[in-house]
Design goal:
The complex is a heterodimer. By secondary structure, chain A is an alpha+beta fold. Chain A contains six helices and three strands; from the N terminus they run ααβββαααα. The longest helix of chain A has 22 residues. The C terminus of chain B is likely disordered. The chains are: A alpha+beta, B alpha/beta. Chains A and B meet through helix 1 of A and helix 12 of B. The complex binds pyridoxal-5'-phosphate (PLP).
Amino acid sequence: MAESLEQLYQQVILDHSRQRHGAGDLEPCDGESFQVNPTCGDEVTLKVRLSSDAEGVRIASLGWEGQGCSISQASLSVLHDLVDGRPVEEVEELDALFRELMHGRGQPLGDEKLERLDDASAFVGVAKYPARIKCALLGWMALRDALVQARS
Amino acid sequence: MTSAEQAAATAGSARPLDAAELAALRADFPLLGRTVRDEKPLVYLDAAATSQKPQAVLDAERAFSSRHNAAVHRGAHQLAEEATEAYEQARAAVAGFVGVDVDELVWTKNATEALNLVTHAYLNATLGRGGAAAAEFALSAGDEIVVTEAEHHANLVPWQELCARTGARLRWIGVSDDGRLDPETFDVIGERTRVVALTHASNVTGAISPVADVVAAARAVGAHVVLDACQSAAHLPLDLHSLEVDFAAFSGHKMLGPTGVGALYGRRELLEAMPPFLTGGSMVETVTMESTTFAAPPQRFEAGTQMVAQTVGLHAAVDYLSQVGMDRLAAHEERLTRRLLDGVAGVPGVRVLGPTEPQERLAVVAFAVDGVHPHDVGQVLDDSGLAVRVGHHCAQPVHRRLGVHASARASAGIHTTEAEVDAFIEGLHRVNSFFGVAGGEHG
Ligand SMILES: Cc1ncc(COP(=O)(O)O)c(C=O)c1O
């Protein structure tokens, strides 16, 4: 099997694309976003609920429903695990890091950043395929949009 | 005979290209010699999206730009004369290639623009432009426009827009489970129908439409017929006069020609009666500060400085196709279609969208793989150097009708070999094993 394909579809991605965490959990929410990838018609509806405590605002729960390729579905699943329960401020930093990873054309991001991205760092191979970057970003775009709504 | 049967009959009588002819022909396409994704030979199976160009087309464009470049139909210098002659010769060649008269062929940027040119004739006539001569194009509330569920968005959205602006009602011919136009639904063509717009061959299912039947139904109620010939022009012998359609649109880049040039065929009397779409320079007779009179067709529909080098390239492309012979090309592709369909049928979990009889379709084969998204299918194929298209191919309704969101699509061209089809089938097996579905193993 060609290396580049293995790099793109890392086992973490294949696993998440089959076991989609957070898929289908669409409870009542504070913010919701519907995003489409116009080139392939893939779509996602993502909902977030927020909670506040002394430390600030955090994501109390996140759910989504969608259909798309393994990259977009795995990215949503990983996103769910990464941000569920986290302070919104940190989520925004992770969002920026993930976008940096995607637009880096496969350039190393540095161990510290990769560690923060956890399973999401497995998407590094996607950056080499410009047509797939949108797939990986679909869920993150939905999250950003839902957060704007939840906080307005 | 239906046009599908006619096409099949023509193709059936011609000899397909033999191995030596095909090898010689492939050498004419410089791009086919390149490698992709770590030195893998390119297998280009995306001809339905855009075709690759033979050297003759590249040379013609270059020769024009290096020797004769000038704006056409203006200027008295020698270059302007030469450029105008090249431009008009190209028109004659392309008109001849599709079986129409030279003054019935309007240059456009692509098929999309050609179809918008037609819908805007109806819109502008409805707004009173073109006067009494254009009355035939004016729509009123209650008039109906019929399209099909198989259309590319280019032959659907402009008609939706026209209906939204005029109050006409959009109706459509349905698609059957195997991706053909459903004859049971032809009765949507009725007394109120003013236009029937349909594709000659679907860019998703590959199905060849029964044009003669639709034309007969439209004639019976006095409706115009607009044919989207994008997919047929490069793959079937095309004789638009004998098909008796009123308008037809096609794009140069799908028939071995350059991007940036396409054409609209319009029946002479209709073009003469139509108000223009784009307006400005080159399409006028007399301009005063108050008003303008328009040139005769085809210039009336060619506003602004034109894409001359591209028309010259398209001229070379149709010469190339004619030299090979469209009947022989169709026979070659029918053989490829058969091999594609037989091959795909042997891959577990793969479903073809469209007819399974090679005579009724082009070598455009869209398919769904159980449990694997089209994007992922395309990615694995790409890794083996196989270029296919993935997505909805600008035809969402027909995908919805066939119960899928999107598909992957392999489409053969003049230069496709049987070995390439086999490589593609091999690639589909690899897709299954990579994603560990349909009994395959990941790894
Ligand atoms: C059937 C059909 N109609 C119309 C079009 C539009 O052609 P273009 O994009 O060149 O205008 C295409 C190609 O994409 C097509 O396949």
